[in-house]
Each structure stands twice: as C-alpha cells, then as structure tokens.
Model the fold of this input.
Amino acid sequence: MSQETVELNLETLTSAVTSGCSAIRLVARLQPAGGPGSKVFPPTHSEGKYAWETRLIDGGEVVKTVLLDSVQSQANRMEQALKEAYQTGQLNFPLLAVDFGGEFAEIGEITTLDAPHRIADAIFRDSLLDGKKFPETDIAKAYAAANQRNATALYQYCPHALVFGIWDSTGSAGGLGNKFQRALVSEIVGIKAEAGVLTSSRLDPLGIKTVEIYATESGGWTTDKALAKTDKKGEPVKIKPSEVNHSNIPPTIEKSEKGDEYIRGGVTIDYAHQTTVLSLPALRRLNFPVNGELSAQINIAARTVLAALGLAAIVHQLENGYDLRSRCLLIADGKFTFELVDNYGESRRFTLTTDEAVALFNAAVANAAKLGLAWNTQKVRLQPTSDLLELVKKSRQTGDLSEA
Done:
C-alpha cells in the first residue's frame, strides 16, 4: 500500500471528510516504562480477573492478549484531555456543567466531559438551569429531538457527544431515546501476554497473635465482649486482628474465588498495541440544518469540525502520556504517525502536534461559523436539585460504596 506523506490542513481534512476516505487511523506500539519484560497491571474485572483474549496479529499469528485499556476508558481519557485543553484556554467549545461546589467542594463541577452519558446523563437530568428542570429547557428539548437528520442541537451544545457517542436512555423515551454511535474508538491491548502472580504478606512490629476480638456498632473493634455489637441471635460478633490490619499476614498468592487461577498478579507482554480509529462515514451520516434548511456546505463544515475535535482529543491524550493506572505506565516506541485511509485501503501518512491540532480545530470552527453554523461558546452552568444533593449526602452518610 502507498505511504505518501501529506500535510493535514483544513483543506486536506475537509476533503477527507467529504468523500473518498474511510478513516483516520493511529496505530502505536508501546512498551512498559520499566523496559521490556517488566510487569504491567491490567484493569481487573469480576473476581479480580483480567480480560484475556486470543487474537490474530501480524497476518495470522494466533497469540494470547490481555486488555490494558478499554474503548470506554480510552474515551474517558480523551475527554479529560479535552477538558484540560479547555481549562487552559487552548480549545473553546460548548460545555455544560453542574456545580456541586456549594455543598461538596471535593466534587466541584461535573461537566459533560466528566459525566458517563454526557449531556444525557442523569446528573444533568436531575439539575436546574435558571431554576427550571433541565429536561424542560429549550436546550434539553432540542437535544432530545435530535437525530442523524438533525444533529444541530448537539453540535451547538455538546459536540463531543457526536464524536464519542451518546444514548439518551434516561429521558422520557427511555430505551427509545436518541442514539449516536461512537465515531472515535481506541483501545490498548497487551500482546503475547503471560500472567504473573500477586504475593502479599505483613510483618506486624507489635507481634500481635491471632486472638479473639469483637466488632463494635461504630465500625471499630474491642477486646471487651460487653461492648461488642451482636448478631441476630444476640451473640457478640467475633473478628480477627488481621481484619483490622493487626497481626502478621503470612505470605500468600492471590487466586480466584474458585481457586482455579492466579489473579491480580500483573502480566508481562511482548509489547502493547494501541489502535485508534476515527470513522469518517459515521460523521458523514450527520446532518446540520440551520433554520430548517439543509446545506451541503454547512454539513461538510460541521463534520470537519467534529473530525478536528476528535483529532485534538487524540493528540492531547498522547501528550498526557500513558500512565493508565498504578503500575501500568507505558512508553511509545518512536514518534506517532497518523494515516488517512481511503475506501480501498490505501493510506497517506501525516503527523500532528497539539499546536497544529488546535490551529486546525480553530480554523474549522471559524469556517462553520462563517457559513452560518455557530455554536454556544459560553459554558452553560446548572445547579443540582435539592433531591440530587440529598441523594449524594445520604449515600455518603451510609459509607457503603458496595453498589457504586
């Protein structure tokens, strides 16, 4: 396949979005920061297990792989990268936010880049805009009525939802609420992965042995049986010192609840493989009427803005690095190169820095505005309802996060 190099400017991106190209792709090879052969720790799922898969790579080799970062997690990271660029003034785009700072300073502001379901999230549904319930506002009604034939409202108030996907499953229509597919998808997979083991132990400097102690109603412990909380039969609830982080813990190896496999022990990999794809046909399905009138020029301009927003999200995330979680820091093998992939698999390469991505995005936004498709540039600020605040308050009072 051809490997022509191009400069990605507004003209090139607009041409790619218009027709002839299927995707913008980034394929990156990553290594553990500790060097080849050092352990990395994937995300754990039910029973502390990792997401293992057998995949075909390099033209047909069958290898064991493990998921290091899911599509959903990658989307969250890119949205947070956009949020940081917004906060530093590098990028400006429509954003909605619910302010919890008055009651919960540690929560502060939840934006549509933070909420899992973006503008369709229950946090926004259960908040107020200028004293009115959000679902009753013009913004929410316009969004609820949006579809692929008319995505103007989302473009004007929550454009990243058209890039990362959205489903209005919490609105009045329930499961029939409007849906927009993800146009931007990314994941990171560990190739030729082998499971490690997780050992744990504790040497207690106090030399406390395994003796009987009792749980108290306050959540603490006591050696006095008379102060212990009781079970349904009226018996004091016994616990072990190790349950309250006293006494020695002998060396152990973590296994699943069934004891049939080692868990949470990290993995060694040959390398990590990141695949990021921006679907241009997904953007081409979207239409953006203005005052009830469709314009081919405006449609192309809006789709180009969304493509530029997706690219900005990618490069800002790359700039942040790959510290995925504790003991899972990855480093790229060389510089990142993107590809414009046409409908027949031919590709043209290009590079893109954060400064170039910002300039490209700004040029695309200005062009759309010139054609008559402007968007809201002031952050829309909402306040949580009293019921939502009370829900947060009571959930914190229980201290039970088991259902979170």
Summary: Residues 102 and 108 are 8 Å apart (CA to CA). The chain has ten helices and 24 strands. The mean pLDDT is 93. Residues 199-253 form one domain.
